[in-house]
Amino acid sequence: MNQHELLYGYSSIAIAAALFAAIVIFNELGFRVGRYIQTRTDTEVKALTGAIQASILGLLALLLGFTFSMSMQRFDNRSMALIDEANAIGTVMLRVQLLPEQYQNQADRLLQDYTSLRVAIGQLDLTRLEERNAFNKKIASLQNELWLLAISATNDDPRPVTTGAFVKSLNDLIDSQGKRNALLQMQVPEVVLILLFIVFISSGGIMGYSSGLSGKRIVAPISLVSLLITLIVFIIIDLDRPKRGLIQVNQSLMTDLLQVER
């Protein structure tokens, strides 16, 4: 997680609730301003206000689609990265049998410990930096032990179809862990989310202003539209929050590896 980001430390539910409250407040302010200048505005200005309202709502729809696509793509990438890492660990576990017999028990033990650590850190909130750093140090240490074991096994059995296959799968395991860690740091840029929030709140204000100019409140339709947009924004934020939001990548593939009989 980027430590300079402001929004990540707040709950997605709290952000969505604050946005809904803001759009209600700005809608009411817009309505009162519209009512105040209603008699001072001619028909052409009212028509122009309607056109501006349509433009802002169109911009909001565009930003919602764009931002949802970004957050969904990142969620899918994290899901695929977990699948790739689980497959890489499973492959290494199978190829342990290709090592010289004296190395197999140690390799099994190291892989079991490694998998347990990867499962544990996979359930740890990204905001808990000290704990994650401690886990990452242990993971790096186990990777180094596995690599040293692979070197020793290669010295005893340099054949590519046995120890060489194990070394290749171990290299894939290390690469998949690095890729998954990198994807955890990739979220929708905060500036994009802030722009979305600004347009969202502005749309509430312009809808209220347009209602004020007409002199009629349309509470139910505006409230429904505001609620639906708020729910979409909530989904966007939650999808973009690995280890923190309500929508999480399924970890079952990793936990299943711990149940494999050795």
Task: Record the SSE blueprint.
Elements: H1 12-36, H2 43-95, H3 101-122, H4 129-156, H5 163-184, H6 190-214, H7 219-239, H8 252-257
List keywords for this structure.
mainly alpha; rod-shaped; 8 helices; Methane Monooxygenase Hydroxylase, Chain G, domain 1
Structural write-up:
With 262 residues, this protein is mostly helical. The chain has one domain (7-257): Methane Monooxygenase Hydroxylase, Chain G, domain 1, CATH 1.20.58. Helices cover 77% and strands 0% of the residues. It is built from eight helices and no strands.
Gist of the model:
The protein has eight helices and no strands. It has 262 residues and is mostly helical. Helix 1 runs parallel beside helix 6, helix 2 packs antiparallel against helix 5 and helix 6 runs antiparallel to helix 7.
Query: What order do the helices and strands follow?
Result: HHHHHHHH
Structural class: mainly alpha
Number of beta strands: 0
Helical amount among residues, as a percent range?
A: over 70%
Instruction: Outline the low-pLDDT stretches.
Output: none
- Report the biggest beta sheet as strand number plus sense, adding barrel if it closes: none
Beta-strand percentage? under 5%
CA radius of gyration is 27 Å
From the 3D coordinates, which CATH architecture would you assign? Up-down Bundle
Predict the CATH topology.
Answer: Methane Monooxygenase Hydroxylase, Chain G, domain 1
Number of helical regions: 8
Overall CATH class? Mainly Alpha
Instruction: Compute the average pLDDT.
Output: 87
